[in-house]
Design goal:
It contains three helices and no strands. The radius of gyration is 29 Å and the shape is elongated.
Length: 78
């Protein structure tokens, strides 16, 4: 009964491709990609820098608040 429940073994070997065929396939896939425009890239990059600055400022302020709280609780930094 246990033997009947098992699924047949599937041969999962990948097809072998030559390096030339591989690079042909890569080139074909790259040609299908929709690349962003220069403007889209610049806007996205600017947004990343803005978000990094906002996150850095937020964590700096949180760190300062916790630091002040610890100094207040333990009486350090007189």
């Amino acid at each position: 009964m246990v033997e009947a429940a098992r699924s047949p073994k599937v041969n999962r070997l990948m097809a072998k491709t030559s390096p030339v065929e591989f690079f042909q396939q890569v080139r074909q896939e790259v040609s299908r990609v929709t690349w962003p425009t220069r403007k889209e890239t610049m806007v996205t990059t600017a947004m990343v820098f803005v978000m990094v600055f906002v996150a850095a400022a937020f964590f700096f302020l949180v760190d300062q608040v916790f630091s002040a709280g610890v100094r207040l609780i333990f009486g350090l930094g007189h």
